[in-house]
Each structure stands twice: as structure tokens, then as C-alpha cells.
Amino acid sequence: MPTMDRHVKADVLLLVVTLLAAAGWVFSKEALLGMPPLLFLGLRFLLAGVVLVAFGWAALRALPRRTLLEAFAVGVLFSGAMMCWIMGLFFATHVGEGAFITSLGIVLVPVIARWVYGDTPPTSTWVALPVAVAGFGLLSLNQGFRIELGQAFFLAAAVMFAFLFNINSRVAARVPAVPLTAIQLLVVGVVALLVSAFVETWPAEVPLAVVGWLLASALLATTLRFFIQVYAQGLTTPSHAAVIMMLEPIWTALLAAVWFSEVMSWAQFGGCLLIFLALVINRWSWVRKLIKSRLLRRA
To answer: What's residue 120's pLDDT?
Structure first.
């Protein structure tokens, strides 16, 4: 395959990934109309995990016990992050805003890396951080400075996702992607269902439409998204993929505007814009390389 075709294919597939991820917010919000949030999360991830186990069974069986335990431990952290996320979505008054708050985890990744591993963050991180804080501050300006419950859960999820990315990147360097993800999804599913059994009342019946949203969330927004993402990342560099993946909150906000008729106030729009600007600043070196590579190909 010619180099240009390879890059174009990667870009298109990664755009599809971001759209599936954004659609997952809509699928999940619709499913929450008929299911308790933790029950939904558990079923979604358990189903997706079972599908991935079927595809990665041979590689999964070959993993040593220590690696399995590491993947399980990361899965527990992943469970906490996803439970915060789903509770944020359950209480959210604005889905698009929630997507931008959750994306703050990207800005926090190098900060957490410095705190936990002693890594030295690039200068862009310290520039992006106050911009991100200002953006979140604008989103909290609702009848004075007030953080809504959904916003607090999304922010907690962002912090946990930052921890998760740092730890998972070190485990993923030694473990194939499919079995690692399968274990983590299964752990999230089991943990969420266990917590749900203690704190939620399970419905006697679930409407067929809600079952459809659950299946869409598990099979399209989770399983299919993962397979496309892994394949697309194999066609390009991690930095290139990371830049395109920043589009997820934008697609989520647009889909929420179309599907739920969400409208942003000027404060919300300004806050989301600042958060996205923080994402661009945080990954500016990668964005600059992407722009240069595109200009060189056109020359």
C-alpha cells in the first residue's frame, strides 16, 4: 500500500473511532433512561469483554500469572474511573459539556506521571493546565460558582483516567492489546455488577429499546471501536493517533446537540473552547509535527 494511502486510511479509521466513542455517550445516556447506571455499565462491559475474550483466547491463555494480576489490578482502577463516568452521565444536565470535562484527563496525564513516576512534563503541560482550569471554572459558573454533581463525577473520572493511562501504558508495553483489554473490560463488568447488586434496585423488566441501546453501547461503541482503533493505530504513529482522538469531545457535543437538542450558553461554550485549547497546547509538539508532515506531503 502506498504511504499516502496508508496515512489517509489511518485518518479515516481514527475519525470513525472518535465518532463511535461520541456515539457511545448518546447510546449510554439513552440506556440510562431504563436501567440503573452501574447495572448498565456492568452489562455493557461484561458483554464487550466476553466478545474480546473469544477473539483473544489463545493470547490470553499464554499470559503468565503475574501479567494477569497486573491486568486485573489495572482493571480495578479502570472500574473506578468508569463508575465515576457513568454516574456523571447519569446526573449530567449537559452531555457535551461532560465530554469536555472528562477530556481533562489528557491534560492531567503528564502531571500524574511526574507525581507518581518522577517524569518531567514538557513545558506545554504547565501552559495547558491553567487554561484547562479556567475552562472548567467557566463551566461551573451556574448561578455563581457551583460545581454540579454530574460535573464532579466527570472531573473525578478525568483524574482517574489520568492515573489509568500512566499505569496502563507501562503494562501495555508487555501485553498484547486484545487480551489486556479483554481482562480489563471483564473486571469493570464484574466490579460494576457487584457494586450495583448492593446499591441499586434492579428492574423486573427492561424495555426492548433500552436493550437495543445496551447492545449498541457494548458492540458498537466498545467492541467495534476497539478493533478499529487497534488496527488504525497500527497504520500510523501513536502521536498522530492521539491528535485525531482529541476530536471525541467535539463530536460528542455535536451529537448531543442534534440528538438531545442541547444548547450551550456562552459560559459553557467558552469553557469547552478553553478545555479544547488546553488539549491542543498539551499536545502541541504532536500537532506541530502533524501539520509539518501534511505540508511536506503536499509540497
So the answer is: 76
